[in-house]
Amino acid sequence: MHHLVLEDYIAAVEAAQARRDRLTAQIAAMLPDWTLAPVVAALQAMRGMALVNAATLIAELGDLSRFANPRQLMAYLGLVPSEHSNKRGGLTKAGNSAARRLLIEAAWCYRFPARVSRELLLRQEELPKAIRQIAWKAQTRLCARYRRLARTGKPANVVTAAIARELAGFVWAIARQVTIPAH
After folding, report:
1. Helices (H), 31-91
2. φ and ψ of 29, to 5 deg
3. What is the DSSP letter of 182?
4. For the segment 30-88, what is each residue's pLDDT rounded down to a tens digit?
5. How far apart are CA 55 and CA 134, in angstroms?
């Protein structure tokens, strides 16, 4: 009986992986026709921002040039602390919850030491040097900050939310480097 259950679980995992691969291929196929495709490609220079994460983030946020500065983007995402009579509280969680979740998921990658993996190097290969420099600056800063905040004893989810907030600023900076073609 245990063997039947195990085989069923394995089949479920394989079906989920096949579905994921199909959806990823569909996103990749649709991307070249999208006006925001250059922003998606540029965001993939960052750790934690592979194709699906970058495309979904930009689909949720749209053109980031509508935000005059990174603080506006952070506030839109609800990644800023609430305030109650001069006392800071938790995140406001206002704005786009799907985009906030994507950034928090990406922020978990920064708990590891800064390095450029082979996969990341391949994603960065054809990107301008300015974008690669912003991505590297983000990685070194966010990895160091993650460890520094974790050493102070803050809970991992609080640290990750703080990293996601700063990550939003780097996303904004990279998006500003990309020229979006006119419609």
Report:
1. 37-43, 51-61, 70-77
2. -70, -35
3. P
4. 999 999 999 999 999 999 999 999 999 999 999 999 999 999 999 999 888 776 666 66
5. 19
Amino acid identity for residue 166 in this structure: E
Amino acid at 160: T
Measure the CA dihedral 41/78/111/88, to 10°.
150
Please say whether the beta carbons of 79 and 165 come within 8 A. Answer: yes
Q: Which amino acid is at 64?
A: L
Angle between helices 129-151 and 156-177 (to 10 degrees): 170
d(CA 135, CA 47): 8
Burial class from Cβ neighbours inside 10 Å (0-12, 13-18, 19+) for residue 83 reads exposed
Which residue has tokens 């935000």? 67
pTM summary value: 0.87
3-state secondary structure of 41: helix
Q: Round to whole Å and give the CA distance between 75 and 69.
A: 10
For 82-112, what is each residue's pLDDT tens digit?
766 666 666 767 778 899 999 999 999 999 9
Going by the DSSP 8-state scheme, the letter that residue 64 receives in this structure is G
